[in-house]
């Protein structure tokens, strides 16, 4: 069984290699190959899962060492995999949702000339993401981490002919680089502290108190920085909204269900380090709480359906990070919410893609309205995802989010009350903005607009049958698109209850540890409060958007609304602080470079060049001169040898 | 009575006749252990017969087939010997003390044979130039003996003659090169040197294009080679005078002070250190000439430029391997007791070689001359590993040589592809914009240049790292500093070629890139694969080299 682990990664990797190097001749079959290999990986995952279930809880971790990657004295890195319950959960999520999104993309990207390349990138992403969650050491994890970053970059910028997509890809790449720096520093710190970066020894040493708390806090904060970059948490959140420039399946798979949750995985995987660094844990919870409100507020103000969902993603991951920061009382719930979120958010994005597919790639919700009659399947699946995310009792989001809110209160003390209140407030806002999306898209009157004119049409997603100047003809999407939506909707409905009653927490416990939190509020009280604030949010949104016509042009709005539309001024902040500061710094460095360094460098180059020209003259082409030089050389050699002896 | 009287007479006659014969024992030859050399020499002899008896039409194919077969068989023999433990536990001195069969010898023989296989493939290439009078042509003159531009030459071209003699010549050269790093006495060393040098002089002279330049190169090489051989031979004489023997082991014994017995005829000279030091310097000079170290390097650019390019590639790769192998054995086996005397001298040579090669290369405008100076600089880097005087020094040099020979053959093979009406377009200005016109060829050449420059993930980096590390550990830190500085200087001209290929506008009358047959393609591909493999995963080969780093004494 151990030997199957590498195959999990190998199958999609093979797909990426074949699709990206195979050339045009694969254009016809490429998407099938890509989908098939993702599915193969999923099946292997299921086999391993079945095998794992057959073993006792303490005996479920599998290891596979492929070979030693870098063997140097005192420094050894293996290409080795570790499959435990935590990795298994991710493997099933990545390959399962991944396969569905491959299927969806077959329809969605049908008219794109570069579909084969798209599937190659998707396979590359799946392989890298699996490597990330299967690695048994931080260095290999880093490799996967960079791999998913690369795939994300390539896919955000997939329609590179749109300057906005190219810019968004670059932005994502740059912001992620800051986080990646954190991960590399964390790995270096681990190496100097523990002399290794394999999970087992590092985590045991951290748990065993082998390192000072200060060092562990430093490592933990650097890991948190990495997590912030990849999971779009404050302060490295700015790239996620722009990343919606990528094709919608990408937004669903990478920027909602899987890659952006890698930060949560990293924190949970490093649980022992965080447990031993309470200060760092506090920072994690603060980051989570701030982000969950930040994302939710941004989500309220966006008229672009994908950007509203992106804000929501940020907010939901904020919940997970918050839970992960709570320690053993929260790890399992973070992962549980991660998985349920994977289902309903992927479903919501695919629904959004389906709507766009039918609406000439219009993304402005103010130009939707009344679509429920035209796209019944999309409406129902999207609606179920909606109910799941707002935490409607019985659906999956209800179970996982409720647990996180309860755990936040259970943190205890003033912190517990503040975090719990933030989480509750977040739940209300979530209900508000999701209801807004739902109403603006599927209910009310039609506010459809003619398709964009031809010069703008060059920039629309190639998946559309756009007829410039005509009103869109909303229609249900093909089967290849609706089927994944239906399956994900099933997950959105049932996953939470299934996890609750099938014992998800116990399943993860051997890896993450688990403690029951002692909440100052009873579980029933928290649940009631959650449901009440949820209904409150829905009600306000209904009053605002359901009872009144939605204006086709956004009203000016309050100061907060305007700020939220601009992502709470995140880009302005970055611009003023980092871009301008950086520009000044580089300018002064350039000055030093020009005036001082270049002088020295050019001077050296000129003198070496001059020397070269002079020495070259010695090479005059006459054998006699060469012989003389050899003779002289030998004489010097002999003289020097004798001289050395004399000395 | 008469019968009894006759018998002792016969007996006496018989014994007196047999007596002196008994005193010269039949040499004991370990044929199996020498099989790599014997296979190649045998094939070379057969190859000469092929020249004489096989009809002209079939000759080219026969020769190519025979050469490749012999070289591959010899390589298999080397691998077999190494697998049989002759590189480590069973290492010993064969052929009555003349030839060592040990790790370094087998490793270098393997490298020489592999590079010879690739070189023979480039020799055999006949698709780069358009057919001449309906005959396919290779890089070699139709009739080497014909005066350039004469009627005889034209007739030879018209008749479709080709110089298939290059194949037996190559095989003889390879045989000499195989013995050179394994030679365990000074006379064998000298004979091996001549056996591989003489065919090389001839090979240099047989270019199909620019024949006068080719012949000039050959004459220069021959003159200077003979000059350096004379020094070497004189050094050997002095060392014999010093030790009373030409065997490495005996000389080493005398150097270390335990003289077994003083030869009465040499009582005057034996143990005289002046003889030792002068003799050592002269032998060393002969070896430094072959590796192209400054100031014995001046033949290199002229000969590399004039020789037919496939021959240049072969010479640059295989000669260097053989000569460094011989130098290692000479310094490590004969003179370990003299380390403190030879190290300072070698320091000086290494420094001027690294700096000289790198600095002069900057102003070169011809790609073959550029590569020649690059090879000089690389000789300097390898010398840094030699100076380490430790087992890691040996293994680093072995690794470097293996890495370098593949890069070199590949790079020169690429040079043969870039052509204009006058044959190969070797002037650098012609290479401008090559990356736009033939991205693949330019990219491959860029890989080789990056390897020469020692950029990570190429074999050049692994090799340079290994020799510099060995040198630093061996107490030659300053040398490493100079090495890194000259690497930086050298990087300039390698990168300049890349910039020229990829970021300059192509010229209107620029050269075309010939589409080679499978032969050159295989050679270039092998070069790229090995270069990248040794860059990505050097560990296996470093281990192999370090297993092979012990000299038998």
From TrEMBL, chain A:
Q: Which UniProt keywords apply?
A: Membrane, Transmembrane, Transmembrane helix
- Region: Disordered; residue ranges are 451-476
Membrane topology term:
Multi-pass membrane protein
Q: What lineage does UniProt assign to this protein's organism?
A: Bacteria, Bacillati, Actinomycetota, Actinomycetes, Kitasatosporales
- The name under which this protein is listed is NADH-quinone oxidoreductase subunit L
Entry's localization field: Endomembrane system; Membrane
Q: What residue spans carry the Basic and acidic residues bias annotation?
A: 467-476
InterPro entries per the record?
Answer: NADHpl_OxRdtase_5_subgr, ND/Mrp_TM, NU5C-like, Proton_antipo_N
Residues in domain NADH:quinone oxidoreductase/Mrp antiporter transmembrane?
135-422
Domain of life, per the record?
Answer: Bacteria
């Amino acid at each position: 069984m151990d030997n199957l682990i590498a195959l999990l990664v190998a199958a999609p990797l093979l797909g990426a290699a074949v699709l990206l190097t195979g050339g045009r001749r694969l254009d016809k079959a490429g998407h099938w190959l890509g989908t098939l290999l993702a599915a193969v990986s999923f099946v292997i995952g299921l086999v391993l899962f079945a095998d794992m279930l057959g073993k006792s809880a303490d005996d479920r971790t599998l290891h596979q060492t492929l070979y030693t990657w870098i063997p140097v004295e005192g420094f050894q890195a293996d290409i080795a995999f570790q499959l435990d319950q935590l990795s298994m959960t991710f493997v099933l999520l990545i390959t399962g949702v991944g396969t569905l999104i491959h299927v969806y993309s077959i329809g969605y990207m049908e008219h794109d000339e570069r579909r084969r390349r798209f599937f190659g990138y998707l396979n590359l992403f799946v392989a890298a993401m699996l490597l990330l969650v299967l690695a048994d050491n931080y260095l290999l994890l880093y490799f996967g981490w960079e791999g998913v970053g690369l795939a994300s970059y390539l896919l955000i910028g997939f329609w590179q002919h749109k300057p906005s997509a190219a810019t968004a890809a670059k932005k994502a790449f740059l912001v992620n680089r800051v986080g990646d720096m954190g991960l590399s520093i964390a790995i270096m710190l681990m190496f100097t502290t523990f002399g290794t970066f394999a999970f087992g020894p590092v985590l045991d040493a951290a748990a065993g108190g082998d390192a000072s708390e200060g060092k562990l806090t430093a490592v933990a904060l650097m890991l948190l920085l990495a997590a912030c970059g990849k999971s779009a948490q404050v302060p490295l959140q700015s790239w996620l909204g722009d990343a919606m420039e990528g094709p919608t399946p990408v937004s669903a798979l990478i920027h909602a269900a899987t890659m952006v949750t890698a930060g949560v995985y990293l924190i949970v995987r490093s649980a022992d380090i965080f447990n031993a660094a309470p200060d760092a844990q506090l920072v994690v919870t603060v980051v989570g709480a701030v982000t969950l409100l930040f994302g939710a507020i941004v989500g309220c103000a966006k008229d672009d359906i994908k950007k509203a969902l992106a804000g929501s993603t940020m907010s939901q991951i904020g919940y997970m990070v918050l839970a992960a920061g709570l320690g053993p009382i929260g790890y399992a719930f973070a992962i549980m919410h991660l998985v349920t979120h994977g289902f309903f958010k992927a479903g919501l994005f695919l629904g959004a893609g389906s709507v766009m597919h039918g609406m000439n790639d219009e993304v402005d919700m103010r130009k939707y309205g009344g679509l429920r009659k035209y796209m019944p399947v999309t409406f129902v699946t999207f609606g179920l995802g909606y109910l799941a995310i707002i935490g409607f009792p019985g659906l999956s989001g209800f179970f996982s989010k409720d647990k996180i809110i309860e755990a936040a209160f259970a943190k205890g003390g003033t912190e517990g009350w503040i975090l719990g209140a933030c989480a509750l407030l977040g739940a209300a806002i979530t209900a508000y903005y999701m209801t807004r999306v739902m109403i603006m898209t599927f209910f009310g009157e039609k506010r459809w607009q003619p398709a964009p004119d031809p010069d703008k049409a060059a920039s629309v997603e190639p998946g559309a049958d756009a007829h410039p100047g005509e009103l869109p003809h909303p229609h249900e999407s093909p089967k290849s698109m609706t089927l994944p939506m239906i399956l994900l909707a099933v997950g959105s409905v049932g996953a939470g209850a299934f996890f609750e009653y099938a014992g998800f927490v116990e399943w993860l416990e051997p890896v993450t540890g688990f403690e029951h939190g002692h909440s100052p509020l009873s579980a029933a009280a928290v649940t009631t409060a959650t449901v009440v604030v949820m209904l409150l949010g829905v009600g306000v949104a209904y009053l605002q958007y359901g009872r009144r016509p939605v204006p086709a042009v956004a009203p000016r709005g309050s100061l907060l609304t305007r700020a939220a539309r601009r992502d709470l001024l995140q880009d302005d902040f970055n611009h003023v602080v980092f871009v301008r500061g950086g520009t000044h710094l580089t300018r002064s460095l350039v000055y030093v470079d020009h005036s001082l360094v270049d002088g020295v460098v050019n001077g050296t180059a000129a003198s070496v060049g001059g020397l070269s020209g002079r020495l070259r003259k010695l090479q005059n082409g006459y054998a006699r001169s060469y012989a003389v030089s050899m003779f002289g050389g030998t004489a010097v050699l002999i003289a020097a040898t004798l001289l050395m002896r004399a000395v | 009575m008469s019968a009894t009287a006759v018998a002792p007479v016969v007996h006496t006659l018989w014994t007196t006749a047999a007596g002196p014969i008994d005193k010269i024992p039949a040499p004991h030859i370990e044929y199996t252990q020498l099989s790599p050399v014997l296979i190649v020499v045998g094939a070379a002899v057969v190859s000469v017969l092929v020249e004489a008896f096989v009809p002209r039409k079939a000759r080219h194919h026969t020769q190519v087939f025979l050469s490749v077969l012999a070289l591959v068989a010899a390589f298999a023999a080397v691998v077999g010997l190494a697998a049989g433990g002759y590189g480590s536990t069973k290492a010993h001195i064969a052929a009555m003390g003349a030839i060592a069969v040990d790790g370094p010898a087998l490793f270098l023989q393997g490298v020489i044979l592999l590079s010879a296989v690739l070189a023979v493939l480039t020799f055999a290439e006949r698709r780069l130039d358009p057919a001449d009078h309906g005959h396919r042509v290779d890089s070699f003159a139709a009739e080497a003996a014909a005066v350039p531009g004469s009627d005889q030459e034209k007739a030879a071209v018209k008749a479709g003659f080709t110089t298939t003699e290059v194949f037996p010549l190559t095989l003889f050269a390879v045989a000499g090169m195989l013995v050179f790093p394994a030679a365990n006495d000074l006379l064998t060393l000298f004979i091996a040197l001549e056996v591989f040098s003489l065919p090389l002089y001839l090979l240099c002279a047989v270019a199909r294009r620019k024949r006068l330049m080719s012949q000039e190169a050959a004459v220069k090489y021959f003159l200077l080679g003979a000059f350096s051989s004379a020094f070497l031979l004189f050094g050997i004489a002095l060392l014999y005078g010093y030790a009373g023997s030409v065997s490495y082991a005996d000389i080493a014994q005398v150097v270390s002070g335990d003289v077994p017995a003083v030869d009465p005829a040499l009582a005057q000279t034996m143990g005289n250190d002046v003889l030792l030091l002068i003799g050592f310097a002269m032998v060393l000079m002969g070896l430094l000439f072959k590796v192209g170290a400054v100031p014995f390097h001046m033949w290199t650019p002229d000969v590399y430029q004039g020789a037919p390019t496939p021959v240049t590639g072969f010479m640059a790769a295989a000669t260097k391997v053989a000569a460094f192998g011989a130098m290692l054995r000479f310094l490590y086996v004969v003179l370990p007791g003299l380390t403190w005397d030879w190290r300072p001298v070698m320091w000086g040579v290494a420094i001027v070689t690294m700096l000289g090669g790198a600095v002069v290369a900057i102003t070169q405008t011809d790609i073959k001359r550029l590569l020649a100076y690059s090879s000089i600089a690389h000789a300097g880097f390898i010398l840094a590993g030699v100076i380490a005087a430790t087992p890691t020094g040996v293994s680093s040099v072995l690794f470097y040589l293996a890495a370098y020979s593949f890069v070199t053959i590949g790079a020169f093979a690429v040079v043969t592809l870039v052509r204009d009406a006058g044959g190969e377009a070797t002037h650098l200005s012609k290479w401008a914009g090559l990356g736009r016109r033939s991205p693949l060829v330019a990219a491959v050449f860029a890989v080789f240049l990056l390897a020469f420059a020692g950029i990570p993930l190429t074999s050049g980096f692994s090799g340079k790292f290994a020799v510099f590390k060995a040198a630093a550990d061996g107490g030659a830190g300053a040398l490493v500093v100079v090495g890194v500085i000259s690497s930086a200087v050298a990087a300039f001209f390698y990168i300049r070629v890349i910039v020229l290929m990829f970021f300059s506008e192509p010229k209107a009358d620029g050269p075309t890139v010939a589409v080679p047959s499978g032969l050159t393609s295989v050679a270039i591909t092998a070069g790229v694969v090995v270069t990248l493999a040794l860059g990505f995963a050097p560990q296996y080969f470093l281990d192999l080299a370090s297993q092979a780093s012990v000299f038998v004494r």
